[in-house]
Amino acid sequence: MRTSWLILMMLVSTSTLADDWPHWRGPNFNGSSDETGLATHWSRTEGLAWTAILPGPSAATPVVHGRYLFVSSTDPDNGQLLALCFDAVTGHLKWEKEVSVGDVRRDNRSNFASCSPVTDGKMVVFFYGTGQLVAYGMEGNALWKRDIQEDYGEFAFLWTYASSPLIHDGRLYLQVLQRDVPVEGRGFEDQPNESYLLALVPETGESLWKVFRASEAVAESRESFSSPVVATVNGITQILVAGGDDVTGHDPATGEELWRWGTWNPSRIEHWRFVPSPVASTDVVLVCAPKKSPVYAVKGGGEGELDDDALAWTSKDRSVLTSDVPTPAFYGGDFFILSDLRKTLARVEPTTGEIKWSAPTPGSAKYEASPTVVDDKVYLINFVGDVVIYDATSGQELNTISMAEPADDPIRSTVVAANGRLYIRTNDHLYCVASIAP
Fold first, then answer.
1. How far apart are CA 418 and CA 425, in angstroms?
2. Which H helix or E strand runs over 148?
3. Are 82 and 98 in contact (CB under 8 A)?
4. Domain 20-433 is of which CATH architecture?
5. Is 15 helix (H, G, I), strand (E, B) or coil?
């Protein structure tokens, strides 16, 4: 009876708290939510609601809708790519689906399960670096399956494709920003490999449209591992796409390119692959150029090909404001920019680039997972599973909590906040952190 009562109270508490986390960057597509009452103190053995063992590593971030938590995974021992669903309240494995059997990785930096799933509360879509795109009902019933490489050509990437899908306003979006020529035998030999933005019907997997995404970038600089995001900037709702030396805004209904700004790579350096996804305030679109390059804020409302007059600001102090891998967050009217190469976290005013505070990231391990900002706190996780928590107002470090062993390096999955709980994915475990005790 007591167990049933506790679960009932947890469900009541969940219903009164803020948000699901349906997309890898959360309900607002920017790494934030309206959650409150989240924990700052726990350990691998205390303060946890539950712990689940995962079959293998993946950089995929879990997504949550109500009691459903979805996450992609590998099972290296059996050569499987998996789609998993856990009960978000109890940690019970609701269902597990084998998507494919074979190699789970091609290089030592990533694996084919690095794309995060996405859900609209009626279904969930999983995407993999093999091109497998699969959809399930919430209870695990198979809806449809497609192979994007089979349909549109093998991905022309030196590294492993890792862009996550997006669901918005009844459409499912994928981006493939790749080389125009083959690389190590991958891609078309007899025709250019087109980069594109693709829209599909979520319920059926049918393609709605596929628009060519032009680029003057060269070689590896055409490769983008960012993901499309939706944002409303200066009152215009658009799909933002970054990579190939440019950032673009697209009409969600048609894919038409509304505007474009670039380039952060005027000399067309060939090895500047692109990783962070764009993020927006109400007025500007933020894009982080690679390899210790500046952060750029593009003013909203522009049309066509924009020049540098469209920039609200460019980061001057690249010892603080730069990001090669993590996607910044937007919360409380400001950007939160994590620099993996400069080992800093900064709160930045969107229209001027003023640094309100900056703080070092502790330890020697790298931070590539994107920041999560909720409940006036910033949650980071590094390669070895240390969760670091900052006060979002002051930048004060509140706590550092080890959630893995050093051998688990690298961990890249972002901390998730949903319905009063935190979810932390390491290479072999999934942890649910209980809300603050009364």
1. 14
2. helix 148-152
3. yes
4. 8 Propeller (2.140)
5. helix
Sign (positive or negative) of CA dihedral 146, 184, 109, 179: negative
- β-bridge pairing 142-147 and 132-137: antiparallel
**Predicted confidence (pLDDT) at residue 429 exceeds the cutoff of 50:** yes
375: left (phi over 0), alpha (psi -120 to 50) or beta: left
pLDDT value, residue 110? 86
Sign for the CA dihedral angle at 423, 327, 291, 340 comes to negative
Rounded to 5 degrees, φ, ψ at 391 are -75, 120
Residue 41 DSSP one-character state: -
At 254 the three-state DSSP class reads coil
Which pLDDT value is given to residue 12? 40
DSSP, residue by residue, 322-377 = --SSPPPEEETTEEEEEETTTTEEEEE-TTT--EEEEEEPPSSS---SPPEEETTE
At 144-178, the pLDDT tens digits run 999 999 999 999 999 999 999 999 999 999 999 99
Those residues with Cβ within 8 angstroms of residue 412's Cβ, 6 or more apart along the chain or in another chain: 59, 114, 368, 369, 383
The DSSP letter of residue 308 is G
Q: Is the dihedral of CA 368, 369, 372, 376 positive or negative?
A: negative
Q: Where are the domains of the chain?
A: 20-433
pLDDT at 436: 66
Rounded to an integer, what distance in angstroms lies between the CA atom of residue 124 and that of residue 381? 25
The pLDDT assigned to 405 comes to 84
The CB density around residue 43, as the number of other CB atoms within 10 Å, is: 11
Q: Which residues contact 380 (CB under 8 A, 6 or more apart)?
A: 338, 345, 361, 367, 369, 371, 372, 387, 388, 389, 390, 415
Q: What is the number of helices (H) and of strands (E) in the chain? A: 2, 33
CA–CA separation, 382 and 321 (whole Å): 18
Statement: residue 41 has pLDDT above 90: yes
> 391 - beta bridge partners?
377
pLDDT for position 406: 80
Is-contact 362 400, C-beta < 8 A? yes
379: β partners: 372, 389
Give residue 435's pLDDT.
80
Task: Report yes or no on whether pTM surpasses 0.85.
Answer: yes
Q: What is the pLDDT of residues 107-122, one digit of tens each?
A: 777 899 999 999 999 9
* pLDDT above 80 for 17: no
Where do we find the tokens 């699901």?
Answer: 20
What is the rounded distance in angstroms from the CA atom of residue 127 to the CA atom of residue 70? 12
C-alpha distances out from residue 68 to 64, 118, 403, Å: 6, 12, 23
pLDDT of residue 7: 41
SS3 378: strand
